[in-house]
Each structure stands twice: as structure tokens, then as C-alpha cells.
């Protein structure tokens, strides 16, 4: 899994739909997830630490978790199927942990309100992310190609086994 953070909300230039943009810690990959206007408002409100006069749905959920001594340990965007993302909330209370299915936009809005980490499965990142820093990606690929070009068979043998095997 890859930990990501909300980089912000963007607007698709073609269809004017809001997109929540997640970025990895090195800001090398971005994961765009299309959301609707209400979901965008909920995420922006959390990013800007806006406190509504009365709790909205995501605030209510965060309040319920707190009132019952529950912790949102993390959210995980765990799948993408036919262009639809899926997420899980990992909630704990003492020794008991539960995973709860959620829309990624709701999971993100709640995670922001509870300061919980946002994780994305590697296969989702591989399938749906876009490169942010193409130069760094190319430099890393070139360094790996050079490593392979200079690799000798004896470099692979350590301790009498193959690649550290005993």
C-alpha cells in the first residue's frame, strides 16, 4: 500500500467535474478521482478546517466515532473496477477492528476530519495514477538500466546462495 495525501480539488477542463487529487509522499504519482459537487464541498471544507454551524454528515460520523471511543485507523482505496473506485474504513474500538465499505470521497472527507491516513493499494496506483514528475521517473528508470548493465553474476552470489539465499 502507498500512503497518499489530498493535494486538492481540481476541475476537469472538458466536463467541468470536480476531481479530488491524491499524491504520494514523494509527489511522483497523482491519483485523480472524479467526485460530485457536494463531495468536493465536503473535502474542501475539511481541508480548510471550516466548522459548519451544525454538523454535516461527515462531521456527524467523526463525532459519532469520537463519542463512542472509536478510532478511524486509516482508509484504504482498495480497488478500481470499470472506472469506479472502492474504499474501506478501518475502524477500531479497543481490540475490535472492523472494515466498512465506503465511497472514496466519503472516506477521504472523514479521514481529513479525523486526521487519519489515506492509503491506496499498489495495483490501484498502477492502474489509475498519473505521473507528476516524469523527469524523476525517467532518471530512476535510467539508473536501474545502468545498474542492470553493470551487474555481474558474482554480484548476485552472497553467502554461498543466490541473492542472499542460505
Automatic annotation (TrEMBL):
InterPro entries: BFN_sf, Bi_nuclease_dom. Gene3D superfamilies: Bifunctional nuclease domain (3.10.690.10). GO terms for molecular function: nuclease activity. Residues 1-132 form the BFN domain. It comes from the Bacteria. PANTHER family: VON HIPPEL-LINDAU DISEASE TUMOR SUPPRESSOR (PTHR15160:SF1), VON HIPPEL-LINDAU PROTEIN (PTHR15160). This is BFN domain-containing protein.
Amino acid at each position: 500500500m502507498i500512503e497518499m495525501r489530498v493535494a486538492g480539488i481540481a476541475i476537469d477542463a472538458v466536463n467541468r467535474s470536480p476531481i479530488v487529487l491524491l499524491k504520494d509522499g514523494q509527489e511522483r504519482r497523482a491519483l485523480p478521482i472524479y467526485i460530485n459537487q457536494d463531495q468536493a464541498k465536503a473535502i474542501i471544507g475539511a481541508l480548510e478546517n471550516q466548522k459548519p454551524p451544525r454538523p454535516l454528515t461527515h462531521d456527524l460520523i467523526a463525532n459519532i466515532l469520537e463519542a463512542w471511543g472509536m478510532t478511524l485507523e486509516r482508509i484504504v482505496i482498495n480497488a478500481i473496477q470499470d472506472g469506479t473506485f472502492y474504499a474501506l474504513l478501518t475502524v477500531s474500538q479497543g481490540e475490535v477492528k472492523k472494515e466498512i465499505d465506503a465511497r472514496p470521497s466519503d472516506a477521504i472527507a472523514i479521514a481529513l476530519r479525523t486526521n487519519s491516513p489515506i492509503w491506496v493499494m499498489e495495483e490501484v496506483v498502477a492502474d489509475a495514477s498519473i505521473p507528476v514528475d516524469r523527469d524523476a521517473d525517467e532518471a530512476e528508470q535510467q539508473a536501474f538500466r545502468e545498474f542492470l548493465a553493470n551487474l555481474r553474476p558474482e554480484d548476485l552470489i552472497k553467502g554461498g546462495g543466490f541473492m542472499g539465499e542460505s
